[in-house]
Amino acid sequence: MGRTARRLPTHKRVHAFFTRWRDTGLLTALHNRMRAAVRTAEGRAPEPTAAIIDSQSVKAAASVHS
Fold first, then answer.
1. So what's the pLDDT on residue 60?
2. SS3 (DSSP) at 66
3. Rounded to whole angstroms, how far apart are CA atoms 63 and 44?
4. 66 neighbors 60 (Cβ within 8 angstroms)
């Protein structure tokens, strides 16, 4: 099969898969597994134990009312 004969799936089909994976939690699960694998490979704990939130992020957050 030549290079020009390969076809990508339609936007509608790709979007349907994305929506299904997002709604069933598959994308979040894959993200969490990949993060844990990278952290483990770096010799760190699989789950993060701390987070940093700067004042710019807090001011910009939709859930923070001024």
1. 60
2. coil
3. 31
4. no
Residue 2 has pLDDT above 80, yes or no: no
* Mean pLDDT on 6-22: 94
Between CA 66 and CA 62 the distance in angstroms is 10
25 three-class SS: coil
What pTM was computed for the model?
0.59
Q: Which residues, in sequence order, are CB contacts of 63 under 8 Å at separation 6+?
A: none
Residue 29 backbone dihedrals phi, psi, to 5 degrees: -65, -45
pLDDT grade, residue 66 (50/70/90)? Answer: low
Residue positions counted in the chain = 66
Output the six-digit token pair for 34.
């990949």
Map residue 10 onto helix, strand or coil.
Answer: coil
